[in-house]
Amino acid sequence: MKGWTGHILRVDLTDKTFKKESFTEEFARKWVGGRGFASKILFDELKPGIDPLGPENKLVVALGPIAGIPAPNTGKVVVAAKSPLTGFYGDGNLGSHVSSQLRKAGYDAMIIEGAADKPTYLNIEDDKVEFLDAAGMWGKGTYFSNEWVYKKHGRNAGVLNIGQAGENKVLFAVIRSLEGRAGGRPGIGAVMGSKLLKAIVVKGTKPIPQADPELMKKLGVEGLKKAHDLDQKSGWSRQSTTAVLAWCNEVNGLPVRNMRETSHPEAWKVDGERLDAARVKTYGCPSCTMRCGITIHDDEGRESELDYENIGMLGPNVNVFDLKKVGSLNYLCDDYGLDTISAGAVLGFYADAIERGAAKGDFRFGDADRGKTLLWDIASRKGETGNLLADGALKAAKVFGKNSADYAMQVKGLEMAAYNCKSIPGQALAFGVAAIGGHHREAWIITFELKHSKRESYGPEKAAKVIELQRIRGGLFEMLVACRFPWVEVGYELENYPKFFNAVTGLDWTLDDFWTAADRGYAMIKLHYLREFPDATRKDDYPPAVWFDKANADTDGPQKGVVLEYDKYDSLLQYYYDQRGYDRRGIPTLETLKKLGLEAEAAEVSKTAKLN
Asked: Which pTM value belongs to this model?
Protein backbone atom coordinates (compact mmCIF):
# COMPACT_ATOMS: atom_id res chain seq x y z
CA MET A 1 0.00 0.00 0.00
CA LYS A 2 1.06 3.61 -0.51
CA GLY A 3 0.69 6.41 2.00
CA TRP A 4 1.03 4.07 4.95
CA THR A 5 4.03 1.97 5.95
CA GLY A 6 1.60 -0.81 6.79
CA HIS A 7 3.36 -1.54 10.07
CA ILE A 8 2.83 -1.03 13.80
CA LEU A 9 5.58 -1.42 16.39
CA ARG A 10 4.42 -3.34 19.47
CA VAL A 11 6.59 -2.98 22.57
CA ASP A 12 6.17 -4.97 25.78
CA LEU A 13 7.89 -3.21 28.68
CA THR A 14 7.34 -6.11 31.06
CA ASP A 15 9.19 -8.66 28.95
CA LYS A 16 11.43 -6.14 27.18
CA THR A 17 10.36 -7.49 23.81
CA PHE A 18 9.13 -5.92 20.60
CA LYS A 19 7.75 -6.99 17.26
CA LYS A 20 6.73 -5.50 13.96
CA GLU A 21 3.10 -6.11 13.02
CA SER A 22 1.26 -5.48 9.79
CA PHE A 23 -2.17 -4.03 9.12
CA THR A 24 -4.32 -4.26 6.01
CA GLU A 25 -5.19 -1.63 3.48
CA GLU A 26 -8.83 -2.08 4.49
CA PHE A 27 -7.91 -1.11 8.07
CA ALA A 28 -5.97 1.92 6.80
CA ARG A 29 -8.82 3.18 4.62
CA LYS A 30 -11.40 2.70 7.35
CA TRP A 31 -9.48 4.35 10.18
CA VAL A 32 -7.10 6.65 8.21
CA GLY A 33 -4.58 7.19 11.03
CA GLY A 34 -3.97 9.17 14.22
CA ARG A 35 -7.09 9.22 16.37
CA GLY A 36 -8.77 6.70 14.08
CA PHE A 37 -6.02 4.12 14.53
CA ALA A 38 -5.73 4.80 18.27
CA SER A 39 -9.44 4.52 19.05
CA LYS A 40 -9.81 1.27 17.08
CA ILE A 41 -6.67 -0.34 18.56
CA LEU A 42 -7.63 0.52 22.13
CA PHE A 43 -11.21 -0.66 21.64
CA ASP A 44 -10.03 -4.02 20.34
CA GLU A 45 -7.25 -4.57 22.87
CA LEU A 46 -8.52 -3.18 26.18
CA LYS A 47 -11.08 -4.88 28.36
CA PRO A 48 -13.65 -2.60 30.00
CA GLY A 49 -13.01 -1.84 33.64
CA ILE A 50 -9.22 -2.13 33.58
CA ASP A 51 -7.18 0.20 35.78
CA PRO A 52 -5.92 3.05 33.55
CA LEU A 53 -2.76 3.17 35.68
CA GLY A 54 -2.24 -0.59 35.63
CA PRO A 55 -0.07 -2.60 33.24
CA GLU A 56 -3.17 -3.70 31.31
CA ASN A 57 -3.58 -0.22 29.85
CA LYS A 58 -1.80 0.51 26.60
CA LEU A 59 -0.22 3.66 25.26
CA VAL A 60 -0.72 4.25 21.55
CA VAL A 61 1.40 6.67 19.55
CA ALA A 62 -0.27 7.10 16.16
CA LEU A 63 0.46 8.98 12.96
CA GLY A 64 -1.47 9.63 9.79
CA PRO A 65 -0.67 9.26 6.09
CA ILE A 66 0.64 12.83 5.68
CA ALA A 67 2.31 13.08 9.09
CA GLY A 68 5.99 13.91 8.80
CA ILE A 69 5.81 14.79 5.09
CA PRO A 70 6.77 18.44 4.39
CA ALA A 71 3.45 20.27 3.99
CA PRO A 72 1.62 22.82 6.15
CA ASN A 73 1.94 21.83 9.82
CA THR A 74 2.24 18.06 9.42
CA GLY A 75 4.65 17.66 12.36
CA LYS A 76 2.01 16.26 14.70
CA VAL A 77 1.58 12.99 16.58
CA VAL A 78 -1.43 11.56 18.46
CA VAL A 79 -0.94 9.95 21.90
CA ALA A 80 -3.79 7.92 23.39
CA ALA A 81 -4.76 5.48 26.15
CA LYS A 82 -7.59 4.76 28.52
CA SER A 83 -7.68 8.01 30.49
CA PRO A 84 -7.01 7.89 34.24
CA LEU A 85 -8.77 11.27 34.53
CA THR A 86 -12.05 10.42 32.75
CA GLY A 87 -12.12 6.62 32.80
CA PHE A 88 -12.58 6.07 29.06
CA TYR A 89 -10.72 6.75 25.81
CA GLY A 90 -8.46 9.80 25.97
CA ASP A 91 -6.03 11.34 23.54
CA GLY A 92 -4.14 14.44 22.50
CA ASN A 93 -1.81 15.65 19.80
CA LEU A 94 1.49 17.48 20.00
CA GLY A 95 4.16 18.74 17.67
CA SER A 96 7.21 16.50 17.63
CA HIS A 97 9.92 15.19 15.33
CA VAL A 98 8.48 11.77 16.22
CA SER A 99 5.96 12.53 13.44
CA SER A 100 8.65 12.13 10.77
CA GLN A 101 11.15 9.92 12.59
CA LEU A 102 8.69 7.13 13.48
CA ARG A 103 7.46 6.97 9.90
CA LYS A 104 11.05 6.93 8.63
CA ALA A 105 11.69 4.08 11.05
CA GLY A 106 8.95 2.20 9.18
CA TYR A 107 5.90 2.54 11.43
CA ASP A 108 2.52 4.31 11.38
CA ALA A 109 1.86 3.61 15.04
CA MET A 110 3.35 2.21 18.21
CA ILE A 111 1.59 0.19 20.92
CA ILE A 112 3.32 0.17 24.29
CA GLU A 113 2.06 -2.38 26.80
CA GLY A 114 3.00 -3.80 30.17
CA ALA A 115 5.22 -1.95 32.65
CA ALA A 116 8.96 -1.75 33.21
CA ASP A 117 10.55 -2.87 36.48
CA LYS A 118 12.64 0.29 36.76
CA PRO A 119 12.72 3.75 35.11
CA THR A 120 13.24 3.10 31.42
CA TYR A 121 13.34 4.90 28.12
CA LEU A 122 12.90 3.45 24.66
CA ASN A 123 15.41 4.11 21.92
CA ILE A 124 14.07 3.22 18.49
CA GLU A 125 16.31 3.36 15.44
CA ASP A 126 14.71 1.82 12.37
CA ASP A 127 14.30 -1.89 13.18
CA LYS A 128 16.26 -1.69 16.46
CA VAL A 129 14.54 -1.10 19.81
CA GLU A 130 16.51 -0.66 23.02
CA PHE A 131 15.21 -0.62 26.60
CA LEU A 132 17.61 1.79 28.30
CA ASP A 133 18.12 2.96 31.87
CA ALA A 134 16.34 6.27 32.58
CA ALA A 135 17.81 6.77 36.08
CA GLY A 136 19.66 9.86 34.84
CA MET A 137 16.36 11.52 33.93
CA TRP A 138 13.98 10.12 36.54
CA GLY A 139 12.79 12.72 39.02
CA LYS A 140 13.76 15.54 36.64
CA GLY A 141 11.62 17.96 34.70
CA THR A 142 10.90 17.81 31.00
CA TYR A 143 13.38 20.54 30.04
CA PHE A 144 16.25 18.63 31.65
CA SER A 145 15.08 15.32 30.17
CA ASN A 146 14.78 16.73 26.67
CA GLU A 147 18.34 18.08 26.76
CA TRP A 148 19.63 14.86 28.35
CA VAL A 149 18.24 12.90 25.43
CA TYR A 150 19.59 15.34 22.84
CA LYS A 151 23.10 15.15 24.29
CA LYS A 152 23.01 11.37 24.10
CA HIS A 153 21.11 10.81 20.84
CA GLY A 154 21.41 14.05 18.85
CA ARG A 155 19.05 16.96 18.28
CA ASN A 156 17.53 15.36 15.20
CA ALA A 157 15.91 12.64 17.32
CA GLY A 158 12.17 12.61 17.88
CA VAL A 159 11.46 12.74 21.61
CA LEU A 160 8.40 12.26 23.82
CA ASN A 161 8.92 12.56 27.57
CA ILE A 162 7.23 13.18 30.89
CA GLY A 163 8.04 15.25 33.95
CA GLN A 164 7.53 14.63 37.64
CA ALA A 165 3.74 14.87 37.23
CA GLY A 166 3.73 11.87 34.90
CA GLU A 167 6.09 9.94 37.16
CA ASN A 168 3.79 10.57 40.13
CA LYS A 169 0.71 9.67 38.10
CA VAL A 170 -1.04 13.02 38.33
CA LEU A 171 -4.28 12.44 36.48
CA PHE A 172 -3.81 15.44 34.19
CA ALA A 173 -0.14 14.85 33.39
CA VAL A 174 0.77 15.36 29.74
CA ILE A 175 3.45 14.12 27.36
CA ARG A 176 5.96 16.76 26.25
CA SER A 177 8.24 17.33 23.27
CA LEU A 178 10.48 20.05 21.85
CA GLU A 179 10.52 23.44 23.58
CA GLY A 180 6.90 23.94 24.54
CA ARG A 181 4.85 21.21 22.90
CA ALA A 182 2.48 19.17 25.06
CA GLY A 183 -0.37 16.74 24.44
CA GLY A 184 -2.57 14.18 26.14
CA ARG A 185 -4.65 16.32 28.50
CA PRO A 186 -6.67 13.39 29.93
CA GLY A 187 -3.61 12.09 31.80
CA ILE A 188 -1.76 10.30 29.01
CA GLY A 189 1.49 11.37 30.69
CA ALA A 190 0.37 9.55 33.84
CA VAL A 191 -0.07 6.38 31.78
CA MET A 192 3.56 6.69 30.68
CA GLY A 193 4.58 7.23 34.30
CA SER A 194 2.62 4.20 35.48
CA LYS A 195 4.72 2.11 33.09
CA LEU A 196 7.97 3.65 34.44
CA LEU A 197 8.54 4.93 30.91
CA LYS A 198 10.33 8.27 31.08
CA ALA A 199 10.87 8.93 27.38
CA ILE A 200 10.56 7.61 23.86
CA VAL A 201 13.36 8.44 21.42
CA VAL A 202 12.98 7.75 17.69
CA LYS A 203 15.29 8.02 14.68
CA GLY A 204 14.61 6.62 11.23
CA THR A 205 16.31 6.55 7.85
CA LYS A 206 13.78 4.91 5.52
CA PRO A 207 11.69 6.77 2.91
CA ILE A 208 8.05 7.43 3.76
CA PRO A 209 5.93 5.53 1.19
CA GLN A 210 4.09 7.83 -1.21
CA ALA A 211 2.12 7.07 -4.36
CA ASP A 212 3.33 10.23 -6.13
CA PRO A 213 6.26 11.75 -4.21
CA GLU A 214 6.96 14.40 -6.87
CA LEU A 215 3.39 15.65 -6.77
CA MET A 216 3.38 15.60 -2.98
CA LYS A 217 6.64 17.56 -2.89
CA LYS A 218 5.19 20.16 -5.26
CA LEU A 219 1.93 20.44 -3.28
CA GLY A 220 3.77 20.54 0.03
CA VAL A 221 6.20 23.28 -0.96
CA GLU A 222 3.40 25.35 -2.46
CA GLY A 223 1.31 24.82 0.68
CA LEU A 224 4.08 25.83 3.06
CA LYS A 225 4.69 29.02 1.09
CA LYS A 226 0.96 29.80 0.89
CA ALA A 227 0.47 29.31 4.64
CA HIS A 228 3.49 31.53 5.33
CA ASP A 229 2.23 34.25 2.98
CA LEU A 230 -1.26 34.16 4.50
CA ASP A 231 0.25 34.46 7.97
CA GLN A 232 2.44 37.39 6.97
CA LYS A 233 -0.48 39.15 5.30
CA SER A 234 -2.77 38.68 8.29
CA GLY A 235 -0.11 39.25 10.93
CA TRP A 236 -1.54 36.34 12.90
CA SER A 237 1.72 35.05 14.37
CA ARG A 238 2.53 38.43 15.93
CA GLN A 239 0.15 37.49 18.74
CA SER A 240 -0.79 33.96 17.57
CA THR A 241 -3.58 32.41 19.67
CA THR A 242 -3.32 35.11 22.34
CA ALA A 243 -5.00 37.64 20.05
CA VAL A 244 -8.27 36.06 21.19
CA LEU A 245 -7.79 37.14 24.82
CA ALA A 246 -8.76 40.79 24.31
CA TRP A 247 -11.71 39.69 22.18
CA CYS A 248 -12.95 37.21 24.80
CA ASN A 249 -12.73 39.95 27.41
CA GLU A 250 -14.70 42.31 25.15
CA VAL A 251 -17.49 39.84 24.38
CA ASN A 252 -17.84 38.55 27.96
CA GLY A 253 -16.36 35.13 27.33
CA LEU A 254 -13.16 35.29 29.39
CA PRO A 255 -12.64 32.87 32.32
CA VAL A 256 -12.21 35.01 35.43
CA ARG A 257 -12.25 33.75 39.04
CA ASN A 258 -13.03 30.11 38.20
CA MET A 259 -15.37 31.37 35.46
CA ARG A 260 -17.49 33.31 37.95
CA GLU A 261 -16.87 36.46 35.90
CA THR A 262 -16.61 36.97 32.15
CA SER A 263 -14.34 40.02 31.85
CA HIS A 264 -11.86 42.05 33.88
CA PRO A 265 -10.52 45.62 33.55
CA GLU A 266 -6.91 44.40 33.95
CA ALA A 267 -7.10 41.70 31.27
CA TRP A 268 -5.16 43.92 28.88
CA LYS A 269 -2.05 43.37 31.01
CA VAL A 270 -1.84 39.74 29.85
CA ASP A 271 -3.18 40.09 26.29
CA GLY A 272 -1.52 39.38 22.96
CA GLU A 273 -0.09 42.86 22.51
CA ARG A 274 1.73 42.64 25.84
CA LEU A 275 2.96 39.15 24.97
CA ASP A 276 4.28 40.27 21.59
CA ALA A 277 6.05 43.22 23.20
CA ALA A 278 7.72 40.92 25.75
CA ARG A 279 8.69 38.29 23.14
CA VAL A 280 12.12 36.72 23.57
CA LYS A 281 11.98 33.89 21.04
CA THR A 282 9.48 32.17 18.78
CA TYR A 283 9.10 28.41 18.38
CA GLY A 284 7.00 26.16 16.21
CA CYS A 285 6.31 22.54 15.38
CA PRO A 286 8.10 20.75 12.54
CA SER A 287 6.87 21.78 9.05
CA CYS A 288 5.36 25.02 10.38
CA THR A 289 5.71 28.38 8.63
CA MET A 290 3.37 30.26 11.00
CA ARG A 291 4.99 29.58 14.35
CA CYS A 292 2.79 30.25 17.39
CA GLY A 293 5.12 29.53 20.33
CA ILE A 294 5.95 32.92 21.83
CA THR A 295 8.35 32.90 24.77
CA ILE A 296 8.89 35.60 27.36
CA HIS A 297 11.08 35.86 30.43
CA ASP A 298 9.04 34.91 33.49
CA ASP A 299 9.46 36.53 36.90
CA GLU A 300 12.48 34.34 37.55
CA GLY A 301 14.16 35.06 34.22
CA ARG A 302 13.32 31.72 32.58
CA GLU A 303 11.96 31.40 29.05
CA SER A 304 8.29 30.45 29.18
CA GLU A 305 6.30 29.67 26.04
CA LEU A 306 2.74 30.98 26.19
CA ASP A 307 -0.48 30.68 24.21
CA TYR A 308 -4.05 31.75 24.88
CA GLU A 309 -5.24 28.71 26.79
CA ASN A 310 -2.47 28.74 29.38
CA ILE A 311 -2.63 32.51 29.82
CA GLY A 312 -6.41 32.38 30.18
CA MET A 313 -6.42 29.55 32.71
CA LEU A 314 -3.28 30.45 34.70
CA GLY A 315 -3.98 34.18 34.48
CA PRO A 316 -7.53 35.60 34.62
CA ASN A 317 -9.05 32.30 35.77
CA VAL A 318 -7.03 32.56 38.99
CA ASN A 319 -7.07 36.40 38.97
CA VAL A 320 -3.40 36.82 38.09
CA PHE A 321 -2.84 39.78 35.75
CA ASP A 322 0.95 40.00 35.80
CA LEU A 323 2.32 38.47 32.57
CA LYS A 324 5.65 37.48 34.09
CA LYS A 325 3.90 35.67 36.94
CA VAL A 326 1.58 33.90 34.51
CA GLY A 327 4.72 32.94 32.61
CA SER A 328 6.22 31.47 35.77
CA LEU A 329 3.13 29.36 36.50
CA ASN A 330 3.19 28.17 32.90
CA TYR A 331 6.91 27.35 32.99
CA LEU A 332 6.44 25.16 36.05
CA CYS A 333 3.52 23.32 34.46
CA ASP A 334 5.58 22.66 31.33
CA ASP A 335 8.62 21.53 33.29
CA TYR A 336 6.62 19.28 35.64
CA GLY A 337 4.53 17.96 32.73
CA LEU A 338 1.20 19.26 34.01
CA ASP A 339 -1.56 20.18 31.58
CA THR A 340 -1.77 23.97 31.82
CA ILE A 341 -5.53 24.08 31.18
CA SER A 342 -6.40 21.56 33.88
CA ALA A 343 -3.82 23.06 36.26
CA GLY A 344 -5.41 26.51 35.94
CA ALA A 345 -8.89 25.04 36.30
CA VAL A 346 -7.89 23.07 39.41
CA LEU A 347 -6.25 26.11 41.03
CA GLY A 348 -9.29 28.26 40.23
CA PHE A 349 -11.65 25.63 41.59
CA TYR A 350 -9.61 25.24 44.79
CA ALA A 351 -9.60 29.01 45.45
CA ASP A 352 -13.34 29.11 44.79
CA ALA A 353 -14.02 26.16 47.10
CA ILE A 354 -12.01 27.80 49.90
CA GLU A 355 -13.84 31.09 49.39
CA ARG A 356 -17.21 29.32 49.62
CA GLY A 357 -16.33 27.25 52.66
CA ALA A 358 -16.23 23.89 50.94
CA ALA A 359 -12.47 23.44 51.43
CA LYS A 360 -9.79 24.58 53.82
CA GLY A 361 -6.51 26.16 52.76
CA ASP A 362 -4.51 29.35 52.37
CA PHE A 363 -4.70 29.76 48.59
CA ARG A 364 -6.54 32.82 47.34
CA PHE A 365 -7.36 34.20 43.91
CA GLY A 366 -4.49 36.35 42.70
CA ASP A 367 -1.80 34.65 44.82
CA ALA A 368 0.63 33.54 42.10
CA ASP A 369 3.42 32.76 44.57
CA ARG A 370 1.27 30.31 46.52
CA GLY A 371 0.11 28.96 43.16
CA LYS A 372 3.71 28.06 42.34
CA THR A 373 4.12 25.97 45.48
CA LEU A 374 0.75 24.33 44.89
CA LEU A 375 1.82 23.29 41.40
CA TRP A 376 4.81 21.47 42.88
CA ASP A 377 2.61 19.91 45.56
CA ILE A 378 0.32 18.65 42.79
CA ALA A 379 3.14 17.41 40.54
CA SER A 380 4.80 15.57 43.42
CA ARG A 381 1.52 14.59 45.14
CA LYS A 382 2.92 16.28 48.24
CA GLY A 383 0.66 16.40 51.28
CA GLU A 384 -3.07 15.84 51.48
CA THR A 385 -3.94 18.86 49.35
CA GLY A 386 -1.42 18.18 46.60
CA ASN A 387 -2.45 14.55 46.42
CA LEU A 388 -6.13 15.44 46.19
CA LEU A 389 -5.80 18.19 43.59
CA ALA A 390 -3.60 15.88 41.51
CA ASP A 391 -6.76 13.88 40.77
CA GLY A 392 -8.48 16.82 39.06
CA ALA A 393 -11.33 19.18 39.92
CA LEU A 394 -14.21 16.69 39.79
CA LYS A 395 -12.63 14.12 42.08
CA ALA A 396 -11.58 16.88 44.49
CA ALA A 397 -15.15 18.19 44.49
CA LYS A 398 -16.47 14.77 45.46
CA VAL A 399 -14.23 14.92 48.53
CA PHE A 400 -15.01 18.55 49.38
CA GLY A 401 -18.77 18.08 48.99
CA LYS A 402 -21.07 21.03 49.79
CA ASN A 403 -22.23 21.18 46.14
CA SER A 404 -18.73 22.13 45.01
CA ALA A 405 -19.08 19.81 41.99
CA ASP A 406 -21.46 22.44 40.59
CA TYR A 407 -18.51 24.78 39.99
CA ALA A 408 -15.81 22.25 39.15
CA MET A 409 -15.39 23.44 35.57
CA GLN A 410 -15.24 20.14 33.71
CA VAL A 411 -17.19 17.76 31.49
CA LYS A 412 -16.83 14.00 32.02
CA GLY A 413 -13.94 14.73 34.36
CA LEU A 414 -11.83 16.73 31.88
CA GLU A 415 -11.42 20.38 32.82
CA MET A 416 -12.66 22.88 30.22
CA ALA A 417 -10.51 25.36 28.35
CA ALA A 418 -10.48 29.15 28.60
CA TYR A 419 -13.97 30.12 27.44
CA ASN A 420 -16.68 31.17 29.87
CA CYS A 421 -19.86 30.01 28.15
CA LYS A 422 -22.61 30.77 30.65
CA SER A 423 -24.11 33.06 28.00
CA ILE A 424 -22.71 31.28 24.91
CA PRO A 425 -24.87 28.17 24.36
CA GLY A 426 -23.23 26.82 21.20
CA GLN A 427 -19.74 26.71 22.67
CA ALA A 428 -21.24 25.25 25.85
CA LEU A 429 -22.68 22.47 23.69
CA ALA A 430 -19.28 21.99 22.03
CA PHE A 431 -17.72 21.41 25.44
CA GLY A 432 -20.56 19.09 26.45
CA VAL A 433 -20.33 16.80 23.43
CA ALA A 434 -16.56 16.87 22.84
CA ALA A 435 -15.42 13.29 22.29
CA ILE A 436 -13.03 13.02 25.25
CA GLY A 437 -14.59 15.47 27.75
CA GLY A 438 -14.44 19.26 28.09
CA HIS A 439 -12.05 20.05 25.24
CA HIS A 440 -12.08 23.13 22.99
CA ARG A 441 -10.05 21.47 20.24
CA GLU A 442 -12.87 19.75 18.39
CA ALA A 443 -15.50 22.43 17.86
CA TRP A 444 -14.39 26.00 18.45
CA ILE A 445 -17.77 27.47 17.48
CA ILE A 446 -17.47 30.64 19.55
CA THR A 447 -16.50 33.01 16.71
CA PHE A 448 -19.27 31.69 14.45
CA GLU A 449 -21.69 32.03 17.32
CA LEU A 450 -20.81 35.60 18.25
CA LYS A 451 -20.03 36.96 14.78
CA HIS A 452 -22.34 35.08 12.42
CA SER A 453 -25.25 33.81 14.51
CA LYS A 454 -27.52 35.03 17.26
CA ARG A 455 -25.72 34.68 20.56
CA GLU A 456 -28.90 33.86 22.44
CA SER A 457 -30.03 31.21 19.93
CA TYR A 458 -30.35 27.55 20.86
CA GLY A 459 -31.35 26.62 17.33
CA PRO A 460 -30.44 23.57 15.23
CA GLU A 461 -27.98 25.62 13.16
CA LYS A 462 -25.62 25.67 16.14
CA ALA A 463 -25.79 21.90 16.54
CA ALA A 464 -25.08 21.57 12.82
CA LYS A 465 -22.07 23.87 13.13
CA VAL A 466 -20.68 21.87 16.04
CA ILE A 467 -20.91 18.68 13.94
CA GLU A 468 -19.31 20.40 10.96
CA LEU A 469 -16.39 21.56 13.10
CA GLN A 470 -16.03 18.19 14.80
CA ARG A 471 -15.72 16.54 11.41
CA ILE A 472 -12.97 18.95 10.41
CA ARG A 473 -11.06 19.51 13.64
CA GLY A 474 -11.61 16.26 15.54
CA GLY A 475 -11.86 14.15 12.40
CA LEU A 476 -9.86 15.28 9.36
CA PHE A 477 -6.96 16.89 11.22
CA GLU A 478 -6.77 14.33 14.02
CA MET A 479 -6.73 11.43 11.57
CA LEU A 480 -4.36 12.79 8.90
CA VAL A 481 -2.50 13.97 11.40
CA ALA A 482 -1.93 17.74 10.94
CA CYS A 483 -2.42 21.04 12.76
CA ARG A 484 -5.64 22.92 12.07
CA PHE A 485 -4.12 26.41 12.45
CA PRO A 486 -3.35 27.12 8.76
CA TRP A 487 -7.01 26.55 7.98
CA VAL A 488 -8.70 28.05 11.00
CA GLU A 489 -6.37 30.98 11.65
CA VAL A 490 -5.15 32.26 8.28
CA GLY A 491 -7.59 30.79 5.77
CA TYR A 492 -5.55 28.09 4.07
CA GLU A 493 -8.12 26.19 2.04
CA LEU A 494 -9.48 22.97 3.52
CA GLU A 495 -9.69 21.43 0.06
CA ASN A 496 -5.88 21.13 -0.01
CA TYR A 497 -5.86 18.29 2.51
CA PRO A 498 -7.61 15.67 0.33
CA LYS A 499 -5.09 16.62 -2.38
CA PHE A 500 -2.23 15.80 0.00
CA PHE A 501 -3.92 12.57 1.06
CA ASN A 502 -4.55 11.47 -2.52
CA ALA A 503 -0.98 12.30 -3.59
CA VAL A 504 0.50 10.06 -0.91
CA THR A 505 -2.08 7.23 -1.03
CA GLY A 506 -3.05 7.15 -4.69
CA LEU A 507 -6.70 7.26 -3.69
CA ASP A 508 -9.36 9.69 -4.87
CA TRP A 509 -10.99 10.91 -1.68
CA THR A 510 -13.11 14.02 -1.31
CA LEU A 511 -13.91 15.89 1.87
CA ASP A 512 -17.15 13.87 2.09
CA ASP A 513 -15.08 10.70 2.49
CA PHE A 514 -13.30 12.29 5.43
CA TRP A 515 -16.61 13.30 6.99
CA THR A 516 -17.72 9.66 6.96
CA ALA A 517 -14.43 8.58 8.53
CA ALA A 518 -14.77 11.34 11.13
CA ASP A 519 -18.32 10.27 12.03
CA ARG A 520 -17.07 6.70 12.40
CA GLY A 521 -14.34 7.91 14.74
CA TYR A 522 -16.77 9.86 16.92
CA ALA A 523 -19.14 6.90 17.09
CA MET A 524 -16.25 4.65 18.11
CA ILE A 525 -15.30 6.91 21.01
CA LYS A 526 -18.95 6.94 22.10
CA LEU A 527 -18.82 3.15 22.17
CA HIS A 528 -15.72 3.35 24.35
CA TYR A 529 -17.70 5.55 26.73
CA LEU A 530 -20.79 3.33 26.85
CA ARG A 531 -18.69 0.21 27.38
CA GLU A 532 -17.08 1.81 30.45
CA PHE A 533 -20.28 3.51 31.65
CA PRO A 534 -23.30 1.36 30.68
CA ASP A 535 -25.64 3.67 32.62
CA ALA A 536 -24.65 6.75 30.59
CA THR A 537 -27.31 9.46 30.27
CA ARG A 538 -27.66 12.71 28.38
CA LYS A 539 -26.72 14.55 31.57
CA ASP A 540 -23.15 13.39 30.89
CA ASP A 541 -23.17 15.86 27.97
CA TYR A 542 -24.09 18.84 30.13
CA PRO A 543 -21.65 21.57 31.17
CA PRO A 544 -21.29 22.42 34.91
CA ALA A 545 -24.41 23.41 36.84
CA VAL A 546 -22.99 26.83 37.71
CA TRP A 547 -23.45 27.97 34.11
CA PHE A 548 -27.21 27.52 34.58
CA ASP A 549 -27.31 29.27 37.96
CA LYS A 550 -28.95 32.73 37.94
CA ALA A 551 -26.99 33.59 41.07
CA ASN A 552 -23.82 33.25 38.97
CA ALA A 553 -24.97 35.61 36.20
CA ASP A 554 -23.03 38.77 35.37
CA THR A 555 -24.20 41.62 37.58
CA ASP A 556 -23.51 44.31 34.98
CA GLY A 557 -22.55 44.71 31.33
CA PRO A 558 -24.30 43.50 28.17
CA GLN A 559 -24.80 39.94 29.51
CA LYS A 560 -26.21 41.04 32.85
CA GLY A 561 -28.50 38.39 34.30
CA VAL A 562 -27.92 35.92 31.42
CA VAL A 563 -27.06 32.25 32.02
CA LEU A 564 -27.74 29.05 30.13
CA GLU A 565 -31.31 27.76 30.28
CA TYR A 566 -31.80 24.06 31.06
CA ASP A 567 -34.75 23.41 28.78
CA LYS A 568 -33.23 25.26 25.85
CA TYR A 569 -29.84 23.60 26.31
CA ASP A 570 -31.55 20.22 26.42
CA SER A 571 -33.33 21.01 23.15
CA LEU A 572 -30.02 22.08 21.59
CA LEU A 573 -28.46 18.83 22.76
CA GLN A 574 -31.31 16.88 21.17
CA TYR A 575 -30.79 18.72 17.87
CA TYR A 576 -27.20 17.51 18.02
CA TYR A 577 -28.23 13.91 18.77
CA ASP A 578 -30.85 13.88 16.03
CA GLN A 579 -28.44 15.23 13.41
CA ARG A 580 -25.77 12.75 14.53
CA GLY A 581 -28.15 9.76 14.52
CA TYR A 582 -27.74 9.20 18.28
CA ASP A 583 -30.37 8.09 20.78
CA ARG A 584 -31.62 10.21 23.68
CA ARG A 585 -28.64 9.16 25.81
CA GLY A 586 -26.25 10.50 23.21
CA ILE A 587 -25.23 7.03 21.98
CA PRO A 588 -25.19 6.12 18.25
CA THR A 589 -28.21 4.03 17.30
CA LEU A 590 -27.77 0.56 15.84
CA GLU A 591 -28.87 1.96 12.47
CA THR A 592 -26.17 4.64 12.62
CA LEU A 593 -23.53 2.14 13.67
CA LYS A 594 -24.46 -0.11 10.77
CA LYS A 595 -24.17 2.77 8.28
CA LEU A 596 -20.69 3.49 9.65
CA GLY A 597 -19.58 -0.12 9.39
CA LEU A 598 -19.39 -0.66 13.15
CA GLU A 599 -21.59 -3.76 13.49
CA ALA A 600 -18.86 -5.83 15.14
CA GLU A 601 -18.07 -3.10 17.66
CA ALA A 602 -21.79 -2.69 18.40
CA ALA A 603 -22.09 -6.41 19.08
CA GLU A 604 -19.17 -6.23 21.51
CA VAL A 605 -20.69 -3.31 23.45
CA SER A 606 -24.11 -5.00 23.47
CA LYS A 607 -22.67 -7.70 25.74
CA THR A 608 -22.66 -5.27 28.67
CA ALA A 609 -24.76 -2.26 27.62
CA LYS A 610 -27.93 -1.54 25.72
CA LEU A 611 -27.89 -0.16 22.19
CA ASN A 612 -31.10 1.11 20.61
From this structure: 0.97
